[in-house]
Amino acid sequence: KAGVTQTPRYLIKTRGQQVTLSCSPISGHRSVSWYQQTPGQGLQFLFEYFSETQRNKGNFPGRFSGRQFSNSRSEMNVSTLELGDSALYLCASSLISTGNYGYTFGSGTRLTVV
Amino acid sequence: GESVGLHLPTLSVQEGDNSIINCAYSNSASDYFIWYKQESGKGPQFIIDIRSNMDKRQGQRVTVLLNKTVKHLSLQIAATQPGDSAVYFCAETGLTGNQFYFGTGTSLTVIP
């Protein structure tokens, strides 16, 4: 059974640009959550999607957005990149509901903003 | 806001010894807790979970203890092996149960 797949694994972008990250959840999983991981802040929740609807959102500015497609695949977008957006972005999928089951994480996308 | 902390940022143990990693959480209403292991270059990997109606849960070489009175969670690893070297995170669902709040992590180093 394939795990959570995130693409690309690494990205280097320039300040001011925008970026789109992709996540394919485990087959059958309908919930996809995104986290930002930095050395200073640890894992910070961005948002969760379930059946193409954003169900929950963390405390990030509107430059961070996401969506989920009918096949449960999800993308997140960051516009007007800032140096502080450099981080490991992790996608996690869950069968049904975040609060009742643990996640399965992907290996992440390492974003570097220069 | 939610706060999940860890008592020690780093821990070194001899191979074969037992390891104990601790975590404090702030929300007494949290219902579900998970320990994750993250190796270098990988995403966090589920180790073991526990619900608030339990005090202890055992897996293969791992035990999680939950003390709701003092809002404390611990992960015990028996007979620690070099492959256990990683960063360990505790996570709780918090008040709403709609997301997980992660601690900052404890880096475990196993000395051969």
Descriptive terms for the model:
heterodimer; A: 114 residues; mainly beta; seven-stranded mixed sheet; four-stranded antiparallel sheet; 0% helix; globular; B: 112 residues; six-stranded mixed sheet; five-stranded antiparallel sheet
Task: Write up what this structure looks like.
The complex is a heterodimer of chains A (114) and B (112). Chain A has 114 residues and is mostly beta strands. Chain A is built from no helices and eleven strands. In chain A, the strands form two sheets. In chain A, strands 2, 4, 5, 6, 9, 10 and 11 form a seven-stranded mixed β-sheet that branches. The N and C termini of chain A lie far apart (37 Å). The mean pLDDT of chain A is 93. With 112 residues, chain B is mostly beta strands. Chain B has strands spanning 4-6, 10-14, 19-25, 32-38, 45-51, 56-58, 62-67, 72-77, 86-92, 101-102, 106-111. In chain B, a hairpin with an 8-residue loop joins strand 9 and strand 10 (101-102). In chain B, 35% of the residues are buried. Chain A binds chain B through residues 4, 33, 35, 42-43, 45, 48, 55-56, 58, 90, 92, 98-100, 102-108, and chain B through 31-32, 34, 36, 41-46, 49, 89, 91, 93, 96-105.
Can you describe this structure in just a few lines?
Chain A is an all-beta fold and 114 residues long. Helices cover 0% and strands 53% of the residues of chain A.
